[in-house]
Every structure is written in structure tokens, then in C-alpha cells.
Design goal:
The complex is a heterodimer of chains A (738) and B (164). Chain A is an alpha+beta fold and 738 residues long. In chain A, 36% of the residues lie in helices and 19% in strands. Among the domains of chain A are: 8-261, no CATH class; 625-681, no CATH class; 685-727, no CATH class. The two termini of chain B are 32 Å apart. Classes of the chains: A alpha+beta (738), B alpha+beta (164).
Chain lengths: 738, 164
């Protein structure tokens, strides 16, 4: 027996982890605990214990964010903290961007499995840094600081904190890059690296780190922010042990995680119905014309089929069997990203008022098929923007769970989906004038945190207020972004018409911004969201998907002259078919249906437009109350032509009162006409089946659609079998090697 | 737990609750009788008499009829065995041109026909829009939800299904 084992009862951490996993495998309970004895014996002490730790973590986050300088962290709280067992299982979490709670768990297990206990050793006061997706992260831009917590000679747990960086030193300035095709483009990688001891971050690390990114001040202060939060958590845990005793703490942490697991299964049994749920989500990766690198010049559609089995015992099985292959693009997902995504959504849908910890993770069995975008198995690919697959893919989970919630009678809990948290204006440049002349700036806006949420079965979706990865989504103040994002100056931010998905209950609506470039040079600019496909898995129970994004910018403009002459300039693009850019400015105006673009160079007085997404709709739009449609018109969420075509609502604008009115009789007639049009324009299913089948049999689909089928058919026998049976095609149909 | 009476639930189903009324229902503990109460409200709303086993959709129900379990629309149209995808009995419209998509979305704000099509599934009885699918051309029709009815009643509710 080695004397330097730091686990409990003179075990190594690896022995503890092996034992924990073995007990769970054998018993189905965390550490084999089937009885919550502490809770049963003294529930008040137990709940007080949980509440005091929870309070300590929330307090750590609220305090630490004031140490940071990055507006992403300070303005919208893009950070979170967790407390973990020695095996790396989360016990209590703070508020904030909770998608990262389980990713840090994976990082701790990586250190344990790779024998960090022996080398580089784990001691009181040590500080570890991680941002490597392969061992537990979403992408390099999310940076974790992890410290061990010791009580006497035993490691009693870990504290971990994450912040999102403005820049991570990748192929282009920015935080979620689009032009990476391999690991070496993703920016600086830290693979669970020891960066300090005795609670001090080593100077040599800090010097290196600050030279590895374009925003060294933000790096330094964000790193100190994470460490400050971790140290506050450590102090709180040691106070807890002084108060309650170490034996109570040891029992408590395991029991609280088992309780989290049991709560998850109880909620499933309380709110869902056992059975099989399915959804099909997609994302476009239109790189054929965009990419610089020959290997990346491919148009792809990501197939993201999701199956969820709700089992008799209340556990959940989740599978992406049939998913598309990984790609030479930024959207590959490692396990940590997939786990973080599913975990954070479950905490929002099913256990939002309960103990949120890794118990929920343990209650779900996952299948991320090897070789797909959800589990590529190759660390040398790019993992810079896994959100490109992860976010649309998990709309399917929200919809599947919502089918169950609806059937069980909990219509108020239904959410049909959400928008892609995309189209942040991204990039960077150098100030060419003013007091900061010569300094670099990186675009940092995180307005993307305010997206449209899908409609529920009893009300409209939340407008501009949701991000799937942060249950406390907040788009922040435009004035703050203006201060920090250098040469990109806002001209307008206002409601973008026709973004919500149509339905009896519409999806949440959203806004769009216009900005121009000022006092800068060497400006990189790029953006990303869905454009060629509808986002995720669309609407629910007859609701439609929300509108897609698109790309609009103007170069070589006469904006300087317009400002000097005080003439009107574009503040919106309400009607993309008859846009204000074309009407009000001179210059080279680019409109593209694909919202995802590689970096372009901009110059002063160039103009950019960035529309955020709405949420998907719920139910047949013809059942929407015309009065609600009138409100939509007055709020600017829809335009007259769209409500006429989709909702069958006939409206007139009262110029004097500046409001919309509904013609009730004409609306009644228009809705009857739409029902008649449905009869005329639809066909029996068999006719539809024959027509669709011919599209694939006759090879009348585009290259990207065909490649998507080839990949899924080759990667999954089950998916291939169902596909070929559904279309009644032979076993060798579409069997080319791709 | 809020004192959710059936009248409140019925108003919720009809979309009549204000946010101030809905918020406590979302935030509070759930009524363990919710399923039974909702089933009773829905059953009373139907103009047909067959027993609803599971509300499947805003307009569709798994019902017991002549010893079988079938999917039925509130308009009375019957889709057949609940274990088969009810969409395979629908009338379907496919929007796979820019022209038909731009009836619903402004230019640049919908999927492109080379990448995706928008399918609309209508009830053949009442032509209510029951589902939409936004999928690449040639994608198999998605079977949204297949409930395990007996497991639900026997193991989770502790009684036999009403048709057993």
C-alpha cells in the first residue's frame, strides 16, 4: 500500500472511481445506496446541509463574476461552479451556464483515470486548468479551473468553475469559430494541466497563457475569477465539515447524488408515459462555397435522429443511432459536450425545482454512435463549435419529452423546441484611431443568449429570452456590448418580423441588429446559424418551424456621407425581398440564404445585419385566436401578408390610431378558404409515398441530401433497415462507400 | 400544490388562463390526479363515446373500440391501430419549391428546396393540420410517439387499462 494515496480510507482515487462505477453497475444505485438514511433520520439537517452548500456555490458565482473583466462573464453571467465527490460526480451546482457542470465531471475522471495522483500529483492548493473537449468540455473557448479539496490527508472533493472566453487564440479572432477543420485551428488546448500550487497560479503559465490569446487582460482576470470562486467553495466545504463532521459529509454527498437519481426517475414516472419517442432534427453545414481549405469544401446536412425510450422503471434511454458522419468542420461533438447538452436540458424540463446534480446524469443511458458527429473518436478533428450539431439535435429531446408531458396531462410543461443560439456577430480587429489605437479588439456580443423559445400547448413561446445551455438566459444590455466590442457600433436593435414559428400558439419572437464598423482596421467578421434548413426538428402538433436565418452585409458603402448629411440609414431588414439596405445606401450589398459564413474582411463604414431566431410553433395556426394575431401585428412579430396566408386573418392598419384591426367576417371566410385549399393541395398518403420514393429512387435529390443518406445508412444497420423497409427498396440500395 | 380544480384545468386546455394563473400551476408540485382529471374533461368534450386511453395529441386520442386500440381524431375520423404511425393515414402536402415556401415565410427566411422540404399532415376528416415535418427530401416519415399503454396503467397508475 502506498502512503501517498489520497482517497478515502487509504484508497487511491482510481480505486474509489472503479468501486463507485462497479457498485452502480451492480445495483443501479449510486454507490449502491438504495435507502436515503440521512434524510430519513433527520430530514431538516439533511435539507439544511444541501441548502447551505447550494447557497455557498451561488454566492461564489455571484461574487466571482465581479472579479472577471470579460463582458460575457460580467454582463450575462456566462460562468458556473460545481462541487464534486472525489470520483468527480457533481453534488451541488451554482446558477449560470449549467451545461458545463457535467463536462467538468468528465475532466476530473480523466485526471483520475490517467493517474494524476502519482504524476503530476494532487495536493492541497493545487490548481488545474482544462479546456480539452476530449477529456471533458464542450469547446476550447469554455475554460475550466478545478481545485482539489482536502480534509486532513484525504481528498474530500473537487471544486470547479467555468467561464466562456472572448477569444481562445484560434484560427480567427472570436469565441465560437467557424473556419477550423482540425484540432490545431481550435486555439490553445489545456488538457487538465496543473497551473498552480499553494493557491497561486504559476507565473510561467500565466505568461504563456496571455500570449496564447488575443485578449490577455480578459484571460488573466477570468482565470482569477474562476479560482476565486473555487476557493470560496473550498472554504464553505471546510466550514461545513467543521460544523457537521467529516463522516456526515462523506455520507451526505453520496446520498444527495442518489437522491438526485431517484428524483429524476420519480419525475419521469410522475410526468411522462412509458414508450418510444422519436424526432428528426437537422443542421446545414454549407461549406462548399465558403471554406478556404480544400478538404472542407463540402455541403453537408447533419442527420440528428433521436430516439428516447422511457422505461418501466422511470429510467431513460437516449440514442442518436443513424446520425451523420463526423466532418472536416467545426461542429464535431465529443462525449462531454453531448453529456452536458442532455443533462442541462433535463434539468430544465423535468427536475427544475429539485436537487440538480449528476444523479440526473446517472438516470439516463446514452448511445452516441461511434464515427458519427456525436462521437467521432478522433481527437485531431476540430471541436471548436460542437454547438452546431448539439443545439439543433437536442430540440428533439425537448419535443420527445413534451409528447410525454402532453399525454400525461401536463400541457403547461410542453415546449415545442427552441431557436439556435446563433448569429452572434463575431470576429475582431485593431483600433486605427482613438485612445486605444493599435490595440486588438475581439467581438464579444452574447446577445445570442436571448433566443425565441418554442410554444407550449397552452401559451406562446417566450420572446427573445432563451438559451438552451443557460437556464438563466439574458441577452444583456446593448450599451455594454457597445463598450466592449471595439470597432463594431450598433445602429439599431429592433423586433424582426416573421421570426416566430406559426401555430395555435406561436413560437417566441426575436429581434435583429444593425451595426457598422468604426475606427478600426484588419477586421475579421463571421457569423453562424441555420440558413438552408429549418432549425432542429421544427414545430409540434401542427405548429411550424421558426424562420431561418440569412446573411446580409454591405461593403464599400457611402455611410460616412450619409452620416455627414444626416440622411436615413438602414435600421432593419423587415422585408428581405425589398430591403432598406438596397434603398438607403450605396455599396456592395451581399445577401445569402446561408447564414453560416467563413470570415470576411471588413472596413470602416461597412454595415452588418444579424437577425436572431424565433421559436417553433404549436398546433394548427388556423386555431389561433384572431385577437392574438392582432396583437402580433401590433407588436411587429408578423406582417399582414403572412397572417393572411398562414393564419387566415384579414387585417387593416388604422393610420390615425397607428394600430392593426381585424376584419372578423373576412377572416372567417378566409379560414374556410384555407381549409378548402388544404383539400385541393394535399394528396392521400399513398400518393405522397410514391412521389417521395421516386425522388430517391430516381436520384432526384441534391448531393448533400444523398451524402446524408449514404452516411446514415453506412453507419447504422438499424437505421438502414428501417429506411429501406419504409421505402420498400432493396438491401443494396444506396450502399456506395462514402 | 395548487388547488387545481377541473374548471381551471379546462380553462387551461382552452388557453384561457392568464400568466398569473398559469405560473403557479407550472411552478408548484403536480397534482397526482392530473391524468385522470384531464381524461375526464377531454372525454366529456368528445361527441363520440369510446373510452379514451391516452390523449396522444391536441386532436388525436388512443381509444378502445371493439376490442382494439385505435387512434381517433376529435372530429371522429379513425386512423386505425395505434401501434402504426397515424401519419400514414393523413392527407399530405409537400412544400418543396421556393414559391410554396414563400407563402408561409418571407424570402430568405425558409429552408432551401435543395436541402429540405416542409410536409404538412392533415386529418382526412376535418383537414386540421396535425403535424409538420421539416426534413430533407426522401426522409422516412417520423413515428413521433408509441406509448406503452399497459405498462403505464398497470405499473405506473397501479390499475388495469380501462379496456382490460
Amino acid at each position: 500500500m502506498s502512503n501517498n494515496k489520497i482517497g478515502w480510507n487509504q484508497k487511491s482515487l482510481k480505486e474509489m472511481l472503479d468501486e463507485s462505477e462497479s457498485l452502480f453497475k451492480d445495483t443501479g444505485h449510486y454507490h449502491g445506496i438504495d435507502k436515503l438514511s440521512l434524510k430519513e433520520k433527520d430530514p431538516f439537517r439533511y435539507e439544511r446541509a444541501y441548502a447551505s452548500l447550494r447557497g455557498a456555490l451561488v454566492s461564489a458565482r455571484e461574487t466571482a463574476l465581479h472579479v472577471a473583466a470579460s463582458p460575457i462573464v460580467k454582463e450575462i453571467g456566462e460562468l458556473c461552479f460545481g462541487l464534486y465527490t472525489p470520483e468527480g460526480d457533481s453534488l451541488v451546482v451554482s446558477t449560470g451556464i449549467l451545461v458545463h457542470i457535467h463536462t467538468m465531471s468528465e475532466a476530473m475522471k480523466f485526471m483520475i483515470r490517467n493517474n494524476y495522483e502519482e504524476n503530476p500529483t494532487i495536493n492541497h492548493g493545487d490548481i488545474f486548468l482544462n479546456n480539452d473537449p476530449e477529456c471533458g468540455n464542450v469547446h476550447t473557448t469554455d475554460v475550466q479551473t478545478i481545485i482539489p479539496i482536502f480534509w486532513e490527508d484525504e481528498l474530500i472533493g473537487w471544486a470547479g468553475g467555468v467561464t466562456h472566453q472572448i477569444d481562445i487564440g484560434g484560427i480567427s479572432p472570436g469565441h465560437t469559430l467557424v473556419s477550423c477543420v482540425q484540432r490545431f485551428d481550435d486555439g490553445v488546448y489545456y488538457t487538465c494541466l496543473k497551473i498552480g500550487s499553494n493557491d497561486i497560479i504559476w507565473n510561467d503559465h500565466m505568461q504563456t497563457a496571455k500570449r496564447s490569446v488575443r485578449t490577455p487582460m480578459y484571460w488573466e482576470l477570468d482565470e482569477k475569477c474562476r479560482l476565486a470562486g473555487d476557493l470560496m467553495i473550498r472554504d464553505a466545504v471546510l466550514d461545513f465539515i467543521e460544523r457537521e463532521g467529516v463522516e456526515y459529509y462523506k455520507k451526505f454527498v453520496r446520498e444527495a447524488i442518489e437522491e438526485g437519481r431517484q428524483i429524476m426517475q420519480q419525475r419521469v414516472k410522475e410526468r411522462l408515459i412509458p414508450g418510444r419517442y422519436r424526432a428528426a432534427s437537422f443542421m446545414d453545414l454549407p461549406f462548399k462555397e465558403e471554406a478556404w481549405q480544400p478538404i472542407a469544401k463540402v455541403n453537408k446536412i447533419s442527420n440528428q435522429p433521436l430516439e428516447i425510450i422511457v422505461r418501466n422503471d422511470g429510467s431513460i434511454y437516449l440514442s442518436f443511432d443513424g446520425a451523420s458522419k463526423w466532418g472536416h468542420n467545426v461542429a464535431n461533438c465529443m462525449k462531454g459536450a453531448m453529456e452536458g447538452g442532455q443533462w442541462v436540458l433535463l434539468t430544465q424540463i423535468l427536475i427544475y425545482r429539485d436537487k440538480v446534480n449528476d444523479g440526473a446524469y446517472l438516470a439516463v443511458e446514452k448511445n452516441y454512435p461511434p464515427g458519427t458527429w456525436s462521437n467521432p473518436g478522433d481527437p485531431y478533428l476540430s471541436y471548436q463549435a460542437p454547438w452546431g450539431n448539439l443545439i439543433p439535435a437536442y430540440t428533439g429531446m425537448m419535443k420527445c419529452i413534451s409528447y410525454g408531458l402532453f399525454s400525461r396531462g401536463f400541457r403547461e410543461e410542453v415546449v415545442s423546441g427552441y431557436s439556435f443560439t446563433g448569429d452572434a456577430i463575431q470576429g475582431g480587429g485593431i483600433y486605427s484611431a482613438g485612445p486605444l489605437k493599435g490595440e486588438r479588439w475581439s467581438l464579444s456580443t452574447f446577445e445570442i443568449s436571448g433566443q425565441g423559445l418554442g410554444a407550449s400547448a397552452v401559451r406562446d413561446g417566450l420572446d427573445h429570452g432563451y438559451a438552451m445551455w443557460n437556464p438563466e438566459a439574458d441577452l444583456g444590455d446593448v450599451e455594454t456590448w457597445d463598450l466592449f466590442q471595439g470597432g463594431v457600433v450598433y445602429l439599431a436593435r429592433r423586433i424582426k418580423p416573421n421570426t416566430p414559428g406559426h401555430g395555435k400558439y406561436r413560437g417566441g419572437g426575436n429581434y435583429a441588429g444593425v451595426a457598422y464598423i468604426a475606427n478600426s482596421k484588419q477586421i475579421d467578421f463571421f457569423g453562424a446559424r441555420e440558413g438552408m434548413v429549418f432549425h432542429g426538428c421544427g414545430g409540434m402538433h401542427g405548429g411550424y418551424p421558426q424562420a431561418t436565418g440569412y446573411r446580409l452585409y454591405a461593403k464599400n458603402t457611402n455611410l460616412e456621407e450619409i452620416f455627414q448629411q444626416q440622411k436615413p440609414y438602414p435600421i432593419s431588414d423587415d422585408n428581405p425581398n425589398d430591403g432598406d439596405f438596397e434603398k438607403l445606401i450605396k455599396g456592395k450589398i451581399t445577401r445569402k440564404p446561408n447564414a453560416l459564413i467563413y470570415p470576411i474582411m471588413l472596413e470602416n463604414y461597412d454595415l452588418i445585419y444579424f437577425p436572431m431566431g424565433g421559436g417553433p410553433g404549436y398546433g394548427d395556426p388556423l386555431e389561433r385566436d384572431p385577437e392574438s394575431v392582432r396583437q402580433d401585428l401590433n407588436d411587429g412579430f408578423y406582417t399582414q401578408d403572412i397572417v393572411y396566408n398562414v393564419y387566415g386573418v384579414v387585417s387593416q392598419f388604422n393610420e390615425k390610431l397607428e394600430e392593426w384591426n381585424i376584419d372578423q367576417e373576412a377572416t372567417k371566410k378566409r379560414r374556410e378558404d384555407i381549409l378548402s385549399e388544404r383539400k385541393q393541395n394535399s394528396v392521400p398518403f399513398e400518393e405522397f409515398w410514391n412521389s417521395e420514393r421516386k425522388k430517391i429512387i430516381d436520384d432526384r435529390v441534391s448531393e448533400q441530401v444523398k451524402v446524408m443518406y449514404l452516411e446514415s445508412l453506412n453507419l447504422s444497420e438499424n437505421w438502414a433497415k428501417e429506411f429501406r423497409e419504409f421505402w420498400d427498396v432493396p438491401d443494396d440500395f444506396l450502399k456506395e462507400v462514402n | 400544490m395548487t388547488g387545481e380544480d377541473k374548471k381551471t384545468l379546462e380553462r387551461m386546455i382552452n388557453g384561457e388562463l392568464k400568466w398569473e394563473e398559469l405560473k403557479p400551476i407550472i411552478s408548484d408540485k403536480k397534482d397526482p390526479n392530473r391524468f385522470v382529471n384531464i381524461l375526464e374533461i377531454l372525454q366529456n368534450k368528445m361527441e363520440w363515446n369510446e373510452k379514451i386511453l391516452i390523449p396522444l395529441h391536441e386532436h388525436l386520442y388512443v381509444i378502445a373500440k371493439d376490442g382494439e386500440r385505435i387512434v381517433k381524431c376529435d372530429c371522429g375520423y379513425e386512423f386505425g391501430d395505434y401501434q402504426k404511425n397515424w401519419k400514414l393515414k393523413c392527407r399530405v402536402r409537400v412544400r418543396d419549391t421556393e414559391e410554396t415556401l414563400e407563402e408561409l415565410y418571407p424570402k430568405y427566411m425558409s429552408s432551401h428546396p435543395d436541402w429540405m422540404e416542409l410536409r404538412e399532415f392533415f386529418c382526412p376528416g376535418c383537414f386540421t393540420l396535425l403535424d409538420t415535418e421539416s426534413v430533407p427530401p426522401g426522409y422516412p416519415v417520423v413515428f413521433n410517439f408509441l406509448p406503452d399503454i399497459d405498462a403505464f396503467y398497470e405499473n405506473w397508475l397501479g390499475r388495469k387499462a380501462p379496456d382490460k
